[in-house]
Amino acid sequence: MKSHWPFGKAAAPAPQVVSELELKLPADGAAPVVLQFWERNTLVVDLQNVASAGQVVLVRRTGNSWPARMAVRMAPQGFETLEVRGAQRLVLPVAASGTGAVTAELPPGTYDQGTAALTISWGAKGAF
């Protein structure tokens, strides 16, 4: 009987955290909480729980290739600008208002199979 009630449907399951790419942390010892998970065929790097400024380097695991599609998830008001350095440099402004997370997909060309590492930095607008 419960399956016929509109409120009897189960909530969508939380995404499964994966470790597709290795995280290399800066030498200063600050370890940001950076999660990775799949949303369909896109690897999402979640930066919602990081400090207002920082950097992390993503490196492919031995024997693996880069995901075909990657995105970065950010929290509004967490930081002002995001910079991604790979085969190309990408600088994204982050929304200053709002309550929900913002997901930005990395455009083709930001990284390719010859890219050794992706450096993701975030912080104040004038820092980049």
Helical/strand content category = mainly beta
How large is the count of helical segments?
Answer: 0
Q: What does the largest sheet look like?
A: 5 strands, mixed
Radius of gyration: 17 Å
Number of strands: 10
Properties at a glance:
128 residues, mainly beta, Immunoglobulin-like, 39% strand, globular
Describe the overall structure:
The protein has one domain: Immunoglobulin-like (Sandwich). The protein is built from no helices and 10 strands. With 128 residues, it is mainly beta. The mean pLDDT is 88. It has strands at residues 17-18, 21-24, 35-39, 42-46, 54-60, 69-74, 81-85, 89-93, 102-105, 117-123. The strands form 2 sheets. It has a 5-stranded mixed β-sheet with strand order 1-3-4-6-9, with no helix packed on it. It has a 5-stranded antiparallel β-sheet with strand order 2-5-10-7-8, with no helix packed on it.
List the helices and strands and how they pair.
Layout: E1 17-18, E2 21-24, E3 35-39, E4 42-46, E5 54-60, E6 69-74, E7 81-85, E8 89-93, E9 102-105, E10 117-123
Parallel strand pairs: 4-6
Antiparallel strand pairs: 1-3, 2-5, 3-4, 5-10, 6-9, 7-8, 7-10
In brief:
With 128 residues, the chain is mostly beta strands.
